[in-house]
Design brief:
single chain, transmembrane helix, Mn2+ efflux pump MntP, Mntp/YtaF
Length: 190
């Protein structure tokens, strides 16, 4: 029964470290953006390496980067994405212009890398916590955090592109922007 308890803990940590990924997937889905597998994979490869950083360099990170500083960086990135999402959609209404809605047609490597680093800030903290609390489960925890990161983005994107897009309709850009801002605020207060 100890293996069942360990399996539960590993998956619970992996899932909780990536709940923000679900919100990002939903937000992109609301913007009519289907996240391709390669895009999601790049995000989570970066998350994997940041988890490794958290695990293997835990003592250095705790001395150099405070949790407050990492939360502030993550907040700035997500809040900016949210603001720009809302601004791009509604700036024409504010200034009396008929500005077309900005859609992302081709995801870029640069977007994946920026988003990967923004989302994986929590992976550093999760890796640090795993190294301290569960020394014997480090590799299963790293794999769990990485796999759940991919799954959470995928699930969020499917939900955002189907259910939530139909529910929010013309307000989907506003909701997507607010979700990004909420994720940022959550990072700030963790």
């Amino acid at each position: 029964m100890e293996w069942l308890s360990s399996f539960f803990i590993i998956n619970l940590i992996g899932l909780s470290a990536n709940l923000d990924n679900t919100g990002v997937g939903i937000a992109y889905g609301l913007k009519h953006f289907r996240i391709p597998s390669w895009f999601n994979a790049i995000i989570n490869v970066i998350g994997f390496f940041n988890t490794l950083i958290g695990v293997f360099l835990a003592s250095i990170i705790s001395q150099v980067i405070s949790p407050t500083a990492t939360g502030l960086v993550s907040f700035c990135v997500f809040f900016s994405i949210g603001f720009l999402t809302i601004y791009n959609r509604y700036s024409g209404l504010l200034y009396g212009k008929n500005k077309p809605m900005v859609k992302i047609h081709q995801p870029t490597l640069r977007q994946a890398i920026i988003l990967g680093f923004a989302l994986s800030v929590t992976n550093i903290a999760a890796g640090f916590g795993a190294a301290v609390a569960y020394e014997l489960l480090i590799w299963p925890l790293i794999i769990s955090i990485t796999c759940w990161g991919y799954i959470c983005i995928w699930i969020g994107n499917v939900i955002g592109n189907t259910v939530f897009l139909k529910m929010f309709g013309q307000y989907s850009s506003l909701v997507a922007g607010l979700i990004f801002m909420a994720i940022g605020l959550n990072q700030l207060f963790q």
